[in-house]
Amino acid sequence: MNENLQTQDGEIQIISLKDEDGNDKDFEILDELEYEGVNYCALMPYYGDSEDLDSEKEEDTDIIIVRFYKDENGEEYCESIEDDDLFDKVAALFDERIEKMYEE
User: Fold this and answer.
1) Distance between CA 71 and CA 7 in Å, rounded?
2) Which candidate, 100, 76, 104, places its Cα nearest to that of 15?
3) CA nearest 29: which of 65, 70, 56, 61?
4) Residue 27: how many other CB atoms lie within 10 Å
5) Is this prediction's pTM over 0.90?
6) What does the radius of gyration of the chain's CA atoms come to, in whole angstroms?
7) What is the SS3 assignment for 7-34?
8) Span 58-72, mean pLDDT?
9) In the prediction, which pLDDT does 100 show?
10) How far, in Å, CA of 15 to CA of 26, rounded?
11) What is the three-class DSSP state of 62?
């Protein structure tokens, strides 16, 4: 489920994913790219406008990278990248892109 939120800096995209326990978790889509014909997303946990993050949330701010696709019915899915070499290549591309975004 995708949802767009307005912020002072513009619009951010939020996606809700189920964790291994079946709980919904919200993530901000930081960037999207296509590599070798496959779409990937860089995601970061999203906690809303709360300014007082507890220590658990502060520790859980790693960026995750997933393969993003739609099935034949148009349903959107994300899945982990199992191949370590592929993950490293895609992560390096995101690192470059995100670094450039923050430079601007």
Assistant:
1) 31
2) 76
3) 65
4) 20
5) no
6) 14
7) ECCEEEEEEEEECCCCCEEEEEEEEEEE
8) 79
9) 81
10) 6
11) coil
The residue type found at 90 is V
Task: Tell me which residue has tokens 């290549």.
Answer: 89
Integer angstrom CA distances of residue 61 from 1, 58, 88, 96, 99? 21, 6, 19, 19, 17
Give the type of residue at 8. Answer: Q
Dihedral Cα 80, 86, 88, 92, nearest 10 deg: -100
Containing structural domain, residue 66:
2-103
Q: Which amino acid is at 43?
A: L
pLDDT at residue 5 greater than cutoff 60: no
* C-alpha distances out from residue 71 to 38, 68, 75, Å: 13, 10, 5
- The domain total for the chain is 1
Q: Do residues 43 and 29 lie in contact, with contact meaning Cβ atoms separated by under 8 Å?
A: yes
CB 14 within 8 A of CB 29: yes
Strand residues in 46-85 grouped as ranges (E): 64-70, 76-80
